[in-house]
Amino acid sequence: MANEIVASTAAYDREKFLAAQLVSRSMIRMVAASLCDKVTMKEGAGETAYFVRYSRMYLPTTALSDDGADPANSTFSLEEFSVGLDEWGDVITITTRAVLNTKHPLMQEAMNLLADNAARVMDREIQLVWMAGTNVRYGDGSVASRVTITNTMKLDENVIGGARVQLVNDGAPAKGMKSKDAFQTNASGNFIGGGSYVAVAGPQVLQDLSRPSVSLGTWASVATYANARALYNFEVGTWMNMRWVESNFIPQFTTLGNSTVAVADGASGGVTGLVVNPLSGSGALTASTTYFWKLVRKSLLRGFGEAITIAHSTATGVSEENMEFTMPSTAGYVYDLYFDSEQGGGTGTDATLKLVASNLAASAVYSVAAVGTGATAPGSLRSSGDGADPTTIHPVFIHADESCKWVGFYNTRFYITKDESTIGNVTRRKRAIGYTFFGKAKICDQTRLLRLEVASTF
Questions:
Q1: Which of 336, 369, 331, 338 minimizes the C-alpha distance to 352?
Q2: Cα separations (Å) of 340 from 50, 238, 337, 365?
Q3: Kind and range of the H or E element at 126?
Q4: φ/ψ of residue 161, rounded to 5
Q5: If residue 9 lies in a helix (H) or strand (E), which one and from where to where?
Q6: Across the strands, what pairs with 279?
Q7: Would you say 315 and 276 are in contact if contact means Cβ atoms under 8 Å apart?
Q8: C-alpha distances in Å from residue 295, one per residue of 18, 111, 336, 339, 447
Q9: Which pTM was predicted?
Q10: Where are the domains of the chain?
Q11: Is the dihedral of CA 185, 186, 191, 197 positive or negative?
Q12: Shortest CA distance to 152 belongs to which of 140, 163, 170, 164?
């Protein structure tokens, strides 16, 4: 039989090709930092920044008499706000061998990746402060909590109109229209002087708004602005006195696992890969008791707690004093675990659930030996066991002027070790590159940042 050279054999003698140009990463539209007023702290002043506001005086309710006597002394008060700063950072270590065996400029790509990392962390931390704001309207404004939002409660002219009425009624000045003390205006003038609020929303919500059946004749895209004007990052248009800015780096809250009480799916609560086992041991849990738990999943690429289970229950046996949780094995996620006890007054609601572990890695095994005392769980997507819609809740952040401040010691700083022999790296076989920033966002006036939470068609 004659020898035959086939394609699979010839492949060993083939030159391997690697394109000179890297494949680009997808685009992330981050806008949070650009909407914060920057405040720089001096080093040596501690890690807490303070703000003070003089509160308005009460008005007199009685006219002056003609006896010449002065009115009674009035009073005023000061409000103080504080914010504690956080330090964030990350590091990449690169070996000499990695540099020698890589076609593309590895140190430069590491710098690019860290810059992307820092920007996402800062944007996430600002939005977490926004999410903790107390000025919030749910759905169409007729409900008082996230769990009562229905699929029909999407962003439309009525929802936006109600939001605008609230902002104006609370005295929140439009962007660029600085706050003033009380002043008289001409009859032809108006309160906001032609300025606009700035609304940040995800593409799903903006698609709801820009559909012709919803906003024909009212939506003005950037391309049709009558006059040249400075644009906000990723601004797409105006509607109802608001300039709409699009971000694909904004939380989207969804249900994790079953939307009703898990029975057929056992202790997993319908979360694929999750295992919950009551165990015998020396824990502090009480045997023969019902315990409630909730899991929140965070993507490591985004960092928001977006996928949330309903509160599930698991009963312990006569000798079981520990509850073991094995996290799902899917890479790229971490989990926060909340827990409470029926015996201790727990009801499985967000008011009683307590954080017992945060940022549990994929496949991590965590044994709960005692009921937690940490912060309460985030709001549910729906009431436990009701099986109601919607499947996703979208926040919309509407900003007035001076709605949020970013307080920091310095802007993001990048560091790279020198290519020299040092103790611990005598043979110069590795270098490190990293970043840090030191700061925190603060809402000093809740009336100036209004959060809407709505459903979407998309």
A1: 338
A2: 36, 46, 10, 19
A3: helix 106-131
A4: -60, -40
A5: helix 7-10
A6: 322
A7: no
A8: 43, 34, 6, 9, 32
A9: 0.89
A10: 32-53+81-179+194-252+393-458, 260-368
A11: negative
A12: 140
48-89: pLDDT as tens digits = 999 998 888 888 888 888 888 888 888 888 989 899 999 999
Distance (Å, whole) CA 411 – CA 88: 12
Q: Smallest Cα–Cα separation from 411: which of 385, 436, 444?
A: 436
As a residue count, the chain comes to 458
Q: DSSP H helical segments within 196-296, as ranges?
A: 203-210, 212-215
Residue 100, classed as helix, strand or coil, is helix
Residue 312 CA to residue 430 CA, distance in Å, equals: 48
According to DSSP, the β-strands at 48-54 and 78-84 are: antiparallel
- Can you tell me which residue has the tokens 């997993």? 268
Question: Which amino acid would we find at residue 442?
Answer: K
**Residue 428 is encoded by which pair of tokens?**
């110069």
The residues, any chain, with a CB within 8 Å of residue 241's CB and separated by 6 or more, are 164, 174, 192, 196, 197
- In this structure, what are the phi and psi dihedrals at residue 7, rounded to the nearest 5 degrees? -60, -40
Element at 239 (helix H, strand E) = strand 235-239
Q: Which residues of the chain have pLDDT under 70?
A: 1-3, 5-10, 180-194, 212-218, 223-224, 226-229, 261-266, 318, 344, 383-390
Other Cβ atoms within 10 Å of 161 Cβ, number: 13
Mind giving me the DSSP string for 137-194? EETTTTBSSGGG--TT-B--HHHHHHHHHHHHHTT-PPBT----SS----TT--TTTT
Return d(Cα 386, Cα 380) in angstroms, integer.
12
What is the rounded CA–CA span in Å between residue 372 and residue 338? 8
Q: 309, 265 in Cβ contact below 8 A? A: no
Asked if 303 and 335 touch (Cβ cutoff 8 Å), the reply is no
